[in-house]
Design a protein that fits this description.
Blueprint lengths: L1 H34 L1 E7 L13 E8 L7 E8 L7 E6 L12 H54 L4
Antiparallel strand pairs: 1-2, 1-4, 2-3
Helix pairs in contact: 1-2
């Protein structure tokens, strides 16, 4: 009975976990956007090679400016096929160091769904384990009771006397 109730609770708990995860990730992404800024970077080399970023972009050398300082040069991520001279928007710290972009809404949704599914599965697994443990305990108690009753009946059936 308890296992059935826990299994019925699994879906709402999973939905709640998914919703909470989405809210927290959205807040974290907004804070990240507030602490970092997008700046243009001009590619110095073509963006070719093995895709290493989740969004299908590859590392390439580029140059950018920070305030009125001298141009900086470093590695940024650009779409595959970009050519030297192309401008790409890059997320940077206030000091001008390239950083990963904040998660996209679909990434947040995906992570939240995965969190909800695994939470629901965890609750269901806990229900199954709890059910099995209760069954084992009850079987053990039944076997002990059966053994006690058998010790009183068995001598009469086998003609053995204590």
């Amino acid at each position: 009975m308890i296992a059935v109730l826990l299994a019925m609770v699994a879906v709402p708990v999973g939905v709640s976990a998914s919703s909470t995860t989405a809210e927290r990730l959205t807040t974290a992404a907004e804070e990240y956007r507030a602490e970092h800024e997008r700046r243009p970077a001009v590619l110095l080399e073509p963006a070719v090679g093995k895709v290493t970023a989740a969004n299908g972009w590859v590392p390439a050398t580029a140059t950018w400016t920070v305030g009125f300082g001298p141009p900086r040069e470093g590695t940024v991520y650009a779409p595959v096929g970009s050519r030297p001279g192309d401008t790409v928007e890059v997320w940077m710290t206030r000091s001008g160091e390239p950083v990963a972009p904040p998660p996209r809404p679909r990434d947040i949704t995906g992570r939240a769904v995965v969190q909800g599914v695994f939470t629901a599965l965890g609750v269901m697994a806990a229900a199954v384990v709890a059910h099995l443990l209760v069954c084992l305990l009850l079987d053990r108690i039944r076997m002990l009771q059966w053994g006690g009753e058998w010790s009183t009946v068995e001598p009469r059936w086998s003609d053995r006397r204590p």
